Amino acid sequence: MKHLERLKKFTTLALKHRWIKSNPFALYQLKYEDFDCPFLEENELKTISSIVLVDESLSIVRDVFVFSCYTGLCYIEVKNLKNGDVVNGIDKEEWIMVRRQKSKTPVKLPLLEQAKQILEKYEEVSHNLKSNKLLPVFSDQKINKYLKEIAKLCKINKNLTFHVARHTFATTVTLLNDVPIETVSKMLGHTKLSTTQKYARVVEQKISRDMCNLKSKLKKTKSKSTSGEISNGNGHLRIV
Asked: How far is CA 63 from CA 53, 122, 145, in A?
């Protein structure tokens, strides 16, 4: 559909310049189908983070992937991450401040401890890199290939690609830990909240937890109202 959308722009331009006599898309409508990208649940993220990988390449890919899970940065943003992109934020803690590759929207997010540990692990390697990059990132194709191998080793039956990390950050790391969706949207660098809603699904665990909190509140309200009732001597209850 993306390819057809771009082609449609060219045919519309051609029609305006009278290079073609009719619009080939006149009777055709583009229809997009929502694709629900998988994300890692908490236990799966812990498994990938803790598994011992003998192969150095697999270990590097795992670390870069987990880093993205705890930052929400996409592949190209992680690849281009430089020393100057990690700065002291408003709270004097370390923050990542970059611009999104696609929209050039500024992204400002506090560095979580898990992500910080990965940067520290590759601190010496980054000093040796001439490009001043913070992490050794392979090509997109290589990373996705190695992630398939890692998924097998961890017995995770999901189509693991690098983009899954971004969905994991939005869903498991932030939303399920009660971070407001508006905050998640800012950290992901989205200009529209509707874009974030595609990433941050309200999954069953959160629905269950929210409903448990609601039940607890309703019980407290009921017990308070009951304790405020006394007999008026005629066998009836009155509120005091």
From this structure: 11, 10, 15
Go through the domains of the chain in sequence order and give each one's CATH number: 1-33 (no CATH), 42-199 (1.10.443.10)
Nearest CA to 78 among 169, 186, 178?
169
Confidence of residue 35 (pLDDT cuts 50, 70, 90): low
- Which candidate, 183, 147, 177, places its Cα nearest to that of 162? 147
Distance CA 73, CA 187 (A): 9
The DSSP letter of residue 20 is: S
Handedness of CA 145, 146, 147, 151 (dihedral sign): positive
Question: Distance (Å, rounded) from C-alpha 17 to C-alpha 14?
Answer: 5
Contact in structure between 163 and 143 (CB atoms under 8 Å): no
pLDDT (tens digit per residue) in 218-238: 888 777 766 655 455 555 545
Alpha carbon separation from 180 to 171, 173, 206 (Å, rounded)? 11, 12, 13
Q: What is the DSSP letter of 18?
A: T
